[in-house]
Automatic annotation (TrEMBL):
PPR repeats lie at residues 176-210, 246-276, 277-311, 312-346, 347-381. This is Pentatricopeptide repeat-containing protein-mitochondrial domain-containing protein. Residues 179-270 form the Pentatricopeptide repeat-containing protein-mitochondrial domain. Residues 1-20 are annotated as: Disordered. Signal peptide: none annotated. It comes from Acorus calamus. GO terms for biological process: mitochondrion organization; RNA processing. PROSITE patterns: PPR. One of its GO terms (molecular function) is mRNA binding. Keywords: Repeat. The lineage of its organism: Eukaryota, Viridiplantae, Streptophyta, Embryophyta, Tracheophyta.
């Protein structure tokens, strides 16, 4: 038969052309001839081919289904819809479904609803997919794992993690592990750590093996909101599942505890790290200095050097700023000399706090020499430095050096005037 009538339409035929209609009619007449000869399986197979092959349009598929119904041929609609979706013809599947959904056997078939969840999810229509999902649940059936996961991914693609979480909690169904991860990540990043923790709790109680990322994203979300104790408890839970709490996570905890003034807890977490980096030391150092534990800060700085880590300008700026703020300018200048010995060049911020402290102490000549040193180092003073020097410099003394070396801001000109 295939040698007499070409089953697949030629590529040159458009769906709306008369030639296309003629070709479809010839194929449907072939179906009738096969039925008359008693070859019902071959007739059904030809109808299936018209519906599922990419060369045929959705209207051709609906016409073929109508023709089959009129001839008493029963079709496996769930299989046909699933085949269309699986072969990447989701748009055709949607149109075909719209044309056949009035049939009672279609609208109430759980397998059809499952296929349409896959279809609408693939088309980026999670709202339509959710309606079919809810219909399926009301009928007392559960969607397949692929359909459930596809719907979750459709919500994730639109950053609608809260709606995905609602679906997860309402249905009580377990998605694939990858969807668990996306759900926890999305809720954590959108400021919903409590919901993320509920998802993680369900994951662990259900026996789904977690990955490190599940704990990590949630821990960072808790730290970001100042819930450091909960984040530390989560890290301990993470350790219990055989995952290593990395340096970045530990530093985030240390920063949170230092910000809250809980230095003992910060130090305990700091000791978790086998090889803390300079940023971890700087974080704890800032906590000590902020609380006025300057001796502990010195010891931490010495330990940092003993471990082979070189303090950078940020490290020294933290301590110099504290000394200047507490009117211990000589200690701050000693730190500047230490920077010279270890080869760490000071930046504009360090010069600014030192010069400001010297001006407040009435040590104008030293401030002037330090300013000249900054210029010799090739550093460009910013407008804050300009305002500082103009406002602090004693009256009657020349300010021309400021005008030559700085580009004043509007506020700087107002001070000068």
């Amino acid at each position: 038969m295939d040698d007499v009538i070409r089953i697949d339409p030629p590529p040159s035929l458009s769906a709306a052309s008369p030639s296309s209609d003629l070709h479809r009619n010839l194929c449907l007449s072939l179906v009738d001839r096969l039925i008359l000869r008693g070859n019902v399986p071959a007739a059904r197979g030809l109808i299936d081919r018209i519906i599922t092959r990419p060369g045929w349009s959705a209207s051709d598929a609906v016409s073929a289904a109508d023709h089959a119904d009129s001839r008493g041929l029963s079709l496996d609609y769930p299989r046909l819809l699933h085949g269309l979706v699986r072969s990447g013809q989701s748009s055709k599947a949607e149109e075909f479904y719209a044309g056949i959904r009035s049939r009672a056997s279609v609208s109430s078939d759980p397998r059809v609803l499952d296929s349409m969840i896959l279809c609408y999810s693939a088309l980026g229509s999670p709202d339509h997919a959710r309606l079919h999902f809810q219909h399926l649940i009301r009928m007392g059936h559960s969607p397949s794992k692929p359909a459930y996961d596809a719907l979750m991914r459709a919500f994730f693609a639109e950053d609608r993690h809260s709606e995905a979480a609602d679906l997860f909690f309402e249905s009580g169904l377990l998605p694939l592990p990858s969807s668990f991860t996306c759900l926890i990540d999305g809720l954590s990043h959108t400021g919903k750590p409590d919901e993320a923790f509920r998802v993680l709790d369900v994951m662990l109680r259900s026996g789904v093996r977690p990955i490190k990322r599940n704990f990590r994203s949630l821990a960072f979300a808790l730290c970001k909101r100042g819930r450091i104790e909960e984040a530390e408890d989560l890290c301990r839970l993470m350790l219990g599942h055989g995952f290593y709490v990395d340096r970045v996570m530990c530093t985030s905890l240390v920063h949170g505890y230092c910000k809250a003034g809980k230095l003992d807890l910060a130090l305990n977490v700091f000791c978790w790290m086998k090889h803390p980096d300079a940023y971890a030391y700087d974080t704890l150092l800032f906590g000590f200095v902020k609380q006025g534990y300057i001796e502990d800060a010195w010891r931490l700085l010495d330990r940092m050097v003993e471990k082979g880590l070189s303090p950078d300008a940020v490290t020294y700026h933290v301590m110099i700023s504290w000394f200047c703020k507490n009117l211990r300018v000589d200690c701050a200048l000693e730190l500047l000399r230490m920077m010279d010995r270890v080869g760490v060049p000071p930046d504009v911020r360090i010069y600014t706090v030192l010069i400001s402290a010297l001006c407040k102490a009435g040590r104008t000549e030293e401030a002037n020499r330090l300013f000249d040193r900054m210029l010799d180092a090739g550093l460009i003073p910013d407008h804050l430095m300009f305002v500082l020097m103009i406002s602090k410099y004693p009256k009657g003394m020349s300010r021309s050096w400021c005008l030559k070396s700085c580009r004043p801001s509007r506020s700087g000109w107002l001070v000068l005037m």
